[in-house]
Specification:
Layout: H1 6-15, E1 36-37, H2 42-49, E2 56-57, E3 61-65, H3 72-85, E4 89-94, H4 101-106, E5 114-118, H5 122-138, E6 145-150, H6 158-165, H7 175-194, E7 198-202, E8 204-205, E9 218-219, H8 224-227, E10 231-240, E11 261-271, E12 279-285, E13 289-290, H9 296-302, E14 306-309, E15 312-315, E16 320-322, H10 324-327, H11 331-348, H12 357-371
Parallel strand pairs: 3-7, 3-10, 4-5, 4-6, 6-7
Antiparallel strand pairs: 1-2, 8-9, 10-11, 11-12, 12-13, 14-15, 15-16
């Protein structure tokens, strides 16, 4: 049997383009290193993308789910601000009235260039985003926009609104879950086709029928809210007292007697890029905002980059670092710890636990240089 030439293959794919206009080789449809948008936290970047310098992916739906006061909207605004710095156009759909000009500007957004849409129903939001994404595709503006919906849980179905207008007191019989499913199915397909990242926030709740509550919480919106996003980050929080500069430098305002901020725990309950159920902690200061580096040391310990001996640290080679308070601000220490951590993250958290060719090449080159 004769081989099919590349010219014949190209002619074949061109002939079926009318039926499947968005087809391409798989290698052309992979999220590359520069296709991630920084979250503002190196820990969150790492557990989502497998790199401290990554973030959330373009062309996919990323969901932040958690109870109240877990900085869900804050993460969204931080990501939008970083996307705007990349030259992307920002569109926000607000269902809670939680976003205002001052809070968005404080996160780094140029609010004069943000399109802000108040919305109520899932169907209307779905249709509006679908029309926007279609226009993006028609004009070949792929990758130039980022869309956020805050939040899914506060959307209503049109049937629910119609019942209220008729003063009907009938309970919702699954229409909300169906409307969210339709919305997310539309977003998942169109986000990928237009290379547009879509961010959504959502609420979580415990199942009262469970005798023993699980680490993974239930997410509002039914099963579709669980399986359709490419990444779902579940958030939790605990207040933190000022520790005297041992791990963070912080200040309390007048009348803040106990807590200077909160520690936010992130758990990836869904991830299509690296191993799921990765966990990390971040620190949100009430005075200075999100700490970009907080939580990195815990990952270093877990991956063997640093070793805790009593109350002091040493690196993976056995060289003493001392108390964390002594070296946490020394840039020269971080300059050699972070590259080793990045290498181990890429190796340990990737599916299959294998380094990619680029990483192996980097290792080989560095070893050759050190031998010289």
């Amino acid at each position: 049997m004769s081989e099919i030439s590349q010219k014949e293959l190209d002619a074949l794919w061109e002939s079926v383009a009318d039926v499947s206009p968005y087809s391409s080789y798989l290698s052309e449809n992979t999220v590359k290193a520069d296709d991630w948008i920084d979250t503002g936290s190196m820990v969150l970047n790492a557990i989502v993308s497998g790199s401290m310098y990554g973030g959330i992916p373009r062309g996919r739906v990323t969901q932040f789910a958690g109870p109240s006061q877990t900085f869900k909207t804050g993460f969204i605004l931080k990501i939008l601000a970083n996307a705007q710095k990349k030259g992307m156009h920002v569109v926000i759909y607000d269902t809670e009235g939680a976003i205002d000009d001052k809070s968005a500007a404080a996160m780094g957004l140029d609010t004069s260039k943000v399109r802000y849409c108040k919305t109520q129903t899932a169907e209307n939001t779905r249709n509006s985003v679908y029309k926007l994404l279609n226009k993006i595709k028609e004009n070949k503006w792929d990758g130039k926009f980022i869309i956020a919906i805050d939040s899914l849980a506060n959307l209503q179905s049109e049937m629910e609104v119609n019942r209220m207008e008729k003063e009907n007191t009938s309970a919702d019989m699954g229409t909300f879950a169906k409307s969210i499913k339709s919305l997310l199915k539309t977003y998942t397909v169109m986000s990928n086709l237009t290379y547009t990242p879509i961010l959504v926030t959502n609420h979580v709740y415990d199942d009262p029928s469970q005798m023993y509550p699980t680490l993974e919480k239930n997410i509002a919106g039914g099963k579709a809210a669980v399986y359709l996003p490419s990444v779902t980050v579940q958030l939790a929080r605990k207040p933190m007292k000022d520790d005297g500069g041992k791990t963070v430098d912080d200040t309390k305002s007048a009348s803040q007697k106990s807590f200077s901020g909160v520690v936010i725990r992130a758990l990836t309950v869904k991830n299509r890029f690296v191993k799921q159920y990765l966990e990390g902690e971040m620190y949100l200061s009430f005075a200075t905002g999100l700490d970009k580096y907080y939580g990195i040391v815990d990952i270093m310990k877990g991956l063997g980059v640093v070793v805790l001996n009593g109350a002091t640290y040493s690196d993976w080679k056995g060289e003493k670092l001392g108390f964390f308070k002594q070296w946490r601000k020394k840039s020269e220490v971080w300059d050699y710890l972070l590259p080793e951590l990045e290498l181990r993250i890429k190796s340990e958290w990737a599916y299959g636990n294998k380094l990619d060719t680029e990483v192996l090449d980097e290792v080989d080159d560095s070893e050759e240089e050190s031998d010289d």
